[in-house]
Each structure stands twice: as C-alpha cells, then as structure tokens.
Design brief:
316 residues, alpha/beta, eight-stranded mixed sheet, five-stranded antiparallel sheet, 9 helices, 28% strand, globular
C-alpha cells in the first residue's frame, strides 16, 4: 500500500509559509498536493476563495486540493485527503506550536499516512529572537528572504549555534524545489524534453545538485553512522537499501527530509541492490558516493543481526 507523506510547514507569522505553499502548488506538475491550512485568522493561500472560513475545501485545476480546518478537524481531514492526493502539506498557524502539530500527525493511526518531517521557515529579514525551541523539532530549516539581508551566512551560523547540525537551505520568495520535500510524479516525456522542462523555461526555480548511488548489501552500523553525520548541504536522500542480515532481507525504502529519517520495509520486486538518489547544494558528489561505498558490508554473512536495532528504530 502506498503511504502518503504528511509534511508540516511551520514558522513565525510573516516568515513566508503561505508563499512557499503557493510555490509548491504552482509548480506541482501533476503531483496532487493536499494543502491543509490550520489558521486562527484569514486563510492566506491565494488559490482559496474562502478566506476566513474553516471546514472548506477548494479543488484546483492541477489536481491539488486546498483545505481550511480547525485543529479538532485535522485528523478527519487527513483521512479524507489520503485517497485523493500524493502528498499532504500542513501549514501550521504562526501562533501554533510546531511540536504540537508534529505530535498530532505522528499520533494518527491511519495506515495510509506517514509523517514526512517538519520544515521550519525562518524570516532572514526579521530574524526571530525566540527561535531555539522551534529549532529543536525542525528537520529542515528554510532561511527565507535572504535577498533582503547582507550576511545570510552569519544567520546560518547562528542557527547552527542554537541547534548544531540542523540542515539549512536558503530561499527567496519561498522558492524551494519540491524534490527536497517529497517525490514528484514521474514526468511525462515528449522526445528529449518533458512537458515539465518546457514549462520550467517560464519559471524561476532554485536548482539543486543530484547524484545517484548503486551498491550491494549495506552494513547497518556504518550506514547509520553516515546518515547521522550527513555532509553539509545534503538535504534529501531517497531510494532503497539492501541489508543481507538474517530476518531483515526485505527491501528497506529510505526517505530523508533534512534531519528526518524513515525506513519502510517491503518485498523486493526485482534485483536486490541498494539504489539511492541524493539531493542538495554544494555537494562533493565523489565524496558522498565514496562515503556510501564505505558503508557496504565486506562480508554480509558476518553482520551481527543486533546491529539492525538502530535501523529498526526508524522503520515504519
């Protein structure tokens, strides 16, 4: 069964959450996005004509859905959206606590849904003082409006001081590649160019580095050490991992968004090998591939099954 990732987008008032969501909706390219707005005031998404209302849904021409709900109705709305969309993005109110929104999604017992991480938007031009407690639950920080500041690197350093190691990606006008957050639908190709390629000529997008890795059976301890100390700028890893460990020879789907990490087990439909796609900025691709190659198990039969415990902590 395909599981629908639910991503929480949080941030202080005015940080650019609605702008980011409009960007995702405008560049969905066939990916059906369910946007749930949890707000205490007017609904800000441009696509919605139901400003100020709750329990309302608007269907968009690109297959996306926008919904405005009260907190008490969130779980019911997620259940309604699950069979209709490919991904769900929740815009948490600027007054809401990110921790509470994340807990609500994690508490869902709907088997069709899976938590996809928390993205925290930070306004570079109005850098908040009370940021540390929100950073503690952030899987990916989007430092927005960097075009309005002179030293974005200093702000990144301050974020790293408050929460060491949290991944930070810069943006302007909320432009973040959707591939950093979720898997877009496969492109429909016409010859050498896809329809999406043609549309992209008319849009200003931030582009990221992408690399692929193919390998054999991975050593659980080595792979988890690599994932715990991901190279700076590596924002997303997705694909499948092979562990040739007794009792754990299924296919392990790997999904990361920033610091968020999840494995999902399934049967192997084809060749049993590790296949990963890595997305980020400023990546030393050769070093990343070498780091993953070093995670391969020289003798998979000698791997202690107990070493899978750390992997299983992150298995849905």
């Amino acid at each position: 069964m395909k599981r629908i990732p639910v991503i929480v987008v949080a941030g202080f008032l005015g940080s650019g959450k609605t702008t980011l969501l409009n960007h995702l909706l405008g560049g969905s390219r066939g990916t059906r996005i369910g946007v749930v707005v949890n707000d205490f005031g007017a609904i800000g998404i441009d696509a919605m004509s139901v400003a100020g209302q709750v329990d309302s849904t608007v269907s968009l021409s690109n297959g996306c859905l926008c919904c405005a709900v009260d907190v008490s109705e969130l779980d019911a709305m997620l259940a309604k959206l699950a069979p209709l969309v490919d991904v769900i993005v929740i815009e948490a109110s600027g007054l809401a606590e990110p921790q509470a929104m994340a807990r609500m999604v994690l508490a869902s017992e709907d088997p069709r849904l899976t938590y996809g991480g928390l993205v925290l938007l930070v306004d570079a031009a109005e850098f908040p003082d009370d940021l540390a407690r929100h950073l503690r639950v952030a899987d990916l920080v989007v430092l927005n409006k960097v075009d309005r500041v002179g030293d974005a690197a200093a702000l990144e350093a301050e974020i790293d001081r408050l929460e060491p190691g949290v991944p930070v990606v810069r943006s302007t006008f909320g432009r973040v590649d959707p591939a950093l957050l979720f898997d877009p639908r496969p492109r429909e190709r016409f010859g050498q160019l896809s329809f999406e390629d043609l549309l992209d000529e008319e849009h200003d997008h931030v582009h990221y580095d992408s690399a692929e890795f193919t390998g054999g059976a991975m050593d659980p301890v080595r792979l988890m050490a690599f994932l715990d100390a991901r190279p700076k700028g590596l924002y997303r890893i997705k694909g499948f991992v092979r562990f040739d460990v007794p009792g754990h020879r299924q296919r392990f789907g790997l999904h990361t968004v920033g610091a968020f990490l999840r494995f999902e087990r399934s049967a192997w439909p084809g060749p049993r090998r590790t296949e990963l796609v890595l997305i980020g900025t400023g990546l030393d691709i050769a070093a990343v591939r070498a780091g993953l190659a070093a995670c391969e198990a020289p003798d998979p039969s000698a791997v202690d099954p107990q070493s899978m415990l750390e992997v299983l902590r992150y298995t849905a």
